[in-house]
Amino acid sequence: MDREKVLDLGKRINTVSKKEINLMEFCGTHTHEIFRFGLRDILPQNIHLLSGPGCPVCVTAQEDIDYIITLARIFPIGVITFGDILNVPGSEGSLNHLRAEGKDVRVVYSPLDSLKIAKKNPQKQFLFVGVGFETTVPLVAYTLLMARKERINNLLFLSLHKLTPPAMRAILEMGEVKVDGIIGPGHVSTIIGRKGWGSIFNDYKIPFVIAGFEPEDIMLGILKLIEMVEENRPQLLNAYRRSVREEGNPHALEMINRVFSVSGDIWRGLGYIEDSGLKLNETFSEFDVKRVYPIKFKKYENKGCRCGEVLRGVLKPTECPLYGKVCNPQTPMGPCMVSSEGTCAAYYQYGEN
Question: Does domain 1-294 correspond to CATH entry 3.40.50.11740?
């Protein structure tokens, strides 16, 4: 971190800023970096940062967790996934509870590891659960291509991948919170490019800055947004040029399109959003676990958890009656406290009151 540059940007923001301004950072990594480096303390009190639904684990629908748990309890299938999702509570426990019951639940750091596990255990069937935004999808797509090439027939896939622009559009359309500017997610933009946000900007004409994750990147993004708001001069600005191109990553996008098709999906806290999910296309339907196992289960929602409102920027974690009491990282009541990118986890870790 360039401390002097960060402080200088803070001074410039204080000089330029006059209005009450609400800025939403969509990305959970931005949320955690803002807290970790104490950037809120540098900003004037009239600048309010709202955390959006930028945590893929947090927005995973509870019914998807329930599907995985029900499936693993009924059938002798091993579950392979990333670590963050293990403690996300479903209606009847979590994937960690499945582990405690003796079910085969494995954590990997790369989707490609699922191929190794399946090949080492040819007599057992496995399910890889893919979670993430556009950033993680290309490697999952490549894993599926390799599974087909190597004729691995004991590995199924569940795509819980989400597309971020439709969710951002949904929040703006809901109008529950006043959003004057958006700190755009750098990781996602590396894949979809500046162009990927064009329709949202054209429809809403809201100041939008794609920002990196270093403190000076974030502060620069905030400064640019404030200048736009103060001057009533909205732009769609790429302030993360070292990683983000206008067209994004064409090779990654082509790979995604080979394997997945766009579909409607359910987001925790936002509900059903058109064209916001990715499902395996017809060419790869034999890998789709829901086609192989179309099981039914009871739907239940923990009404005490206010994670959905936190994800929409309506509520601060500290305004939830469960926060810091029955809900903490050791005993999370909802995914916002579970995930390393969750807003509740950030507030708790960095002692925000």
Answer: yes
